[in-house]
Write a structure and sequence with these properties.
Serine Threonine Protein Phosphatase 5, Tetratricopeptide repeat, mainly alpha
Length: about 700
């Protein structure tokens, strides 16, 4: 070793190494500053570091061979030492490079809760690209995207007013500025649902920028006192935490109009974004110059953000605020559009499913377009009206596509189109749009639900599970994440206990949530533990998007029928029928209610009507739901051949993953035909996993054959 050290000194290896490391350090500092200024992707620094590391090894080898003339011989021990150094160095580089790669958040990790909106929650949502890419589960990865230089996220504006009741004003101003920024196609603008739970002025902007996939952050504050308003905004480089631009706007309520456009234009200038002539006109446009209308509109925006966060009880207040804005300024097109959107959500959330409200929403959306024919928010609202109020999916898709042209950074529009494209059978287009939506709303758990649901339809249950785990990583208090994981365990493996265990993972505060209670009762029915199902059913009440009054009434009837309470079941089915009639969305519920009442002729007529409606809609999910209901009717009334035929068509469909062989093996609904050879042959033909064991009924009540749907 002493001889080796002496030879190192002779060849000046230490001097060469020190000089190289010093030069490399200086070069890395210069590259880091340049990457921060020009928003280079992180991969540039990774490549530079790798090149310099390899160069260091090359310099050492050259110094060894040429450090002393005539002494180029290297002994075997020295070769072994060099090989060990290279191996250790390479191993360390691989280890730290791997440690720095994105990992899927652990289930239950702290996260933010994003909004629930029609487009991002109906069929679905989206799992982050990083979480799928990093997963060890054998699924197709979504390529991680570099951070664009022209990308921005607007954090919640701070309310500096003495009157905390003015929070709506700061909230609304942020929304208006964000809306203007989202109009610019050359920018990547993150959805508010991904930023709303961050602090107004957080410390670690670099981490936030990485989480959201943006290069810049917009911070702001609003102070309102009487008629005076002070708005402060600042644009910050997320990587270096350095200010790019800052500005203060002192206005009165009479001349505040247009500030949001000024801010958006300045941000676009600082990021070198190129605006088309139409985009420039939209950014500069002023939606209203009426102070009262403007104030009520900001209140509506504030309430709508709460609705999108899951507080559906704020919808009536949202509708009232937008309505007052239109009354104060009848030419306020954007307010008319928002009013129509909020009214359509009344139907979507089952708060108000009356035809009158749907017609009002339709008229208000058309009024917005009459005032401003190219207003994308009006096309978006009209799309929702056609989709939820009128069930005209062709017109809805056309309106969403028109909206997308003017809203290039809107995750809701992308997801809304994806959902309808999926219903039309264009799954690849739907997945691509959902991936696009994920980049615009990376912290939104509802997009994760949507993408997970998409995978469930395709029977890609492993992928669905990853998406649902992403939901709980982002929002540990989201009951849909737990119920969705339970469904995945049930449909893939027929494992009722594993599904119940997923529900048990939910926090104690969520155990009484309608979503969790409904899922638990459903699983207990499949387990044939009707006593426990009855006890749990006492805790169930309608709530949320899917646990609607008709579905709750149907579940009560099902449990009562299976428990032998025929009178109670009949009352529940009659209630379900009354709640479902007149609601096109609940047509399948109508079929099941009539089946439960035992009226064969009425059940077949209801099934036929529902099938015709589904075929007119052209939506594959609607047809699949009707097929399942129709098969149930055939099974109930003894037509095994037709029941098996419908089930066979259902299992052959590439998008009917919600109906698996494992479910057919367990569900008491199919007991009337369970022992028929044709049904058993069907189960064997489509079996893809180990058989689910049908539990014995734990209730002492004898179960009547075909006791209900």
């Amino acid at each position: 070793m002493a001889d080796l050290l002496q030879r190192l000194k002779q060849r000046k290896l230490v001097q060469w190494a020190a000089a190289y490391l010093a030069a490399a350090w200086v070069l890395l500092q210069v590259l880091d500053l340049a990457s921060g200024s020009y928003h280079w992707p992180d991969v540039v620094m990774h490549i530079a570091f790798g090149v310099l590391a390899v160069g260091f090894v090359v310099v050492l080898i050259l110094a060894w061979y040429h450090g002393e003339r005539g002494a180029q011989h290297v002994s075997g021990a020295e070769l072994l030492l060099i090989a060990l150094a290279l191996a250790i160095g390479g191993g360390l580089l691989w280890h730290f490079g791997r440690a720095g790669s994105p990992e899927a958040p652990a289930r239950g990790a702290a996260g933010v809760r994003s909004g629930t909106s029609p487009s991002t929650a109906e069929s679905g949502s989206g799992v982050s690209a990083a979480s799928i890419t990093a997963s060890k589960t054998p699924v197709a990865a979504i390529a991680a995207q570099p951070t664009p230089a022209k990308s921005i996220a607007a954090l919640p504006f701070e309310n500096l007013s003495t009157d905390k009741g003015n929070a709506y004003f700061a909230d609304g101003m942020q929304d208006l500025i964000l809306t203007k920024l989202a109009d610019i196609g050359d920018l990547k603008v993150i959805s508010r649902t991904s930023t709303m739970k961050y602090a107004s002025h957080p410390d670690d902007l670099k981490t936030i920028g990485q989480q959201l996939g943006v290069a810049t952050i917009l911070e702001g504050s609003v102070q309102k006192a009487g008629n005076q308003v002070l708005i402060n905004v600042q644009l910050i480089d997320a990587k270096t935490d350095s200010h790019i631009w800052a500005q203060s706007y002192t206005r009165t309520l009479d001349n505040i109009f247009g500030v949001e456009g000024e801010v958006a234009q300045k941000v676009a200038d600082e990021l070198n974004a190129k605006l088309t002539q139409a985009e420039s006109a939209k950014v500069a446009s002023v939606p209203t110059q009426n102070p009262a209308a403007f104030d009520d509109f900001l209140r509506g925006e504030h309430y709508l953000s709460m609705v999108k966060a899951g507080n559906f009880k704020m919808l009536p207040d949202t509708v009232d605020a937008y309505r007052r804005a239109t009354q104060a300024d009848p030419k306020f097109a954007l307010a008319w559009a928002r009013l129509a959107f909020a009214q359509s959500m009344l139907n979507y959330t089952s708060i108000d499913i009356s035809k009158a409200t749907g017609q009002q929403a339709l008229a208000n959306a058309k009024q917005a377009l009459a005032l401003e024919p190219n207003l994308p928010q009006a096309h978006l609202a009209l799309g929702y009206v056609y989709r939820f109020d009128l069930q005209d999916f062709d017109k809805a898709l056309a309106e969403f596509r028109l909206a997308q042209q003017g809203l290039p950074n809107n995750a809701e529009v992308e997801a809304a189109i994806a959902y309808l494209e999926d219903g039309r059978g264009d799954v690849q287009a739907a997945v691509a749009r959902l991936e696009r939506a994920v980049t615009l709303d990376p912290r939104g758990p509802n997009l994760a639900v949507s993408l997970g649901d998409e995978y469930m339809e395709l029977r890609q249950y492993d992928r669905a599970r990853i998406a649902y785990q992403r939901v709980l990583a982002l929002a540990p208090d989201d009951p849909e994440g737990y119920s969705a994981l339970a469904r995945a365990a049930l449909l893939q493996h027929g494992d009722i206990n594993a599904a119940l265990a997923e529900l048990d993972q939910a926090p104690a505060a969520l155990q009484s949530d309608p979503e969790i209670v409904y899922a638990r009762v459903d699983l207990l029915v499949l387990k044939r533990d009707y006593i426990a199902a009855q006890k749990t059913l006492a805790l169930l009440h309608p709530g949320g998007r899917f646990v609607t009054p008709p579905r709750v009434a149907l579940l009560r009837g099902r449990v009562n029928a299976l428990s032998g309470n025929a009178a109670g079941a009949r009352k529940d089915y009659q209630n379900a029928l009354a709640l479902a009639r007149g609601d096109a969305v609940a047509q399948v519920s109508t079929v099941y209610a009539v089946i439960g009442l035992g009226n064969k002729r009425a059940a077949m007529e209801a099934a036929r009507d529902a099938r015709e409606s589904a075929q007119r809609s052209g939506m594959s999910w609607a047809l699949n739901g009707v097929r399942a209901a129709q098969a149930s009717a055939y099974a109930k009334f003894g037509d095994t051949g037709q029941a098996v035929s419908e089930l066979s068509a259902l299992l052959q469909s590439p998008t009917s993953g919600w109906f698996s062989v494992q479910l057919l093996k367990l569900d008491p609904m199919w007991d009337p035909i369970r022992n028929d050879p044709r049904f058993q042959a069907l189960l064997r033909k489509y079996a893809v996993d180990k058989p689910a064991v049908v539990p014995a009924a734990s209730s002492s009540v004898a179960v009547a054959k075909g006791a209900g749907p």
